[in-house]
Write a structure and sequence with these properties.
This protein is of the alpha+beta class. It has three helices and seven strands.
Length: 193
């Protein structure tokens, strides 16, 4: 019967011999490494533990006092359901409700850039005089500084600039009052130093 094993090519024989020759060296290195871990001198660890145990014990801080919160009982009787649309009052004799005081924002006007920021996100940082006109310098929450003048708009409530002084910018906002009616509200932005 013939042996079905093929003889290894002669080029792989030196590689196998070199590989098997490194085994005793690896085992010897492993034994040397493990023998370095067998030191029985724990005097530094024993000394450290004795120091820690000799320290005076500190008093444990008491737990913070628990605050008693009064329970709040919500009674929705007589209140409007916040998830239903507001009921519009009946219009008397076909009159326009929004024309009650005659004040209403101009919704056909093109919005200016500073109207995309809420008023509390805008800060006055100074003024500049150009051609005998006083302009205000306003920093938006994005960090950009804008020049504004009387007649321009700022904020989300249709705030029109009515006066610019060295230390503040005065605006007149148009805010909703009752359903379908509007009112004017004066407001100012003061200079932040």
């Amino acid at each position: 019967m013939q042996d079905n094993k093929l003889p290894l090519p002669s080029a792989t024989q030196p590689v196998l011999q070199a590989h098997t020759a490194s085994w005793p060296f690896c085992c010897l290195a492993l034994v040397a490494l493990l023998s370095g871990c067998s030191n029985d001198d724990f005097s530094d660890l024993t000394h450290y533990l004795a120091d820690v145990k000799a320290r005076p014990k500190e008093a444990i801080k008491p737990l913070p006092e628990i605050k008693v919160i009064e329970p709040f009982i919500f009674k929705p009787e007589g209140l409007r359901d916040p998830f239903k649309p507001m009921e519009q009052p009946e219009q008397a004799s076909g009159a326009d409700v929004s024309a009650g005081s005659g004040i209403k924002p101009d919704f056909t006007r093109r919005k200016e850039e500073l109207e995309s920021f809420p008023l509390d996100g805008l800060r006055m940082v100074g003024t500049i005089e150009m051609k005998s006109d006083l302009w205000g310098l306003v920093r938006a929450s994005s960090g950009t500084i804008y020049r504004v003048r009387v007649g321009r708009y700022m904020g989300k409530n249709h705030g029109k600039i009515i006066r610019i002084l060295n230390d503040k910018i005065e605006l007149m906002e148009i805010v909703p009052d009752k359903p379908g009616t509007w009112r004017e509200q004066p407001i100012s932005i003061t200079l932040t130093e």
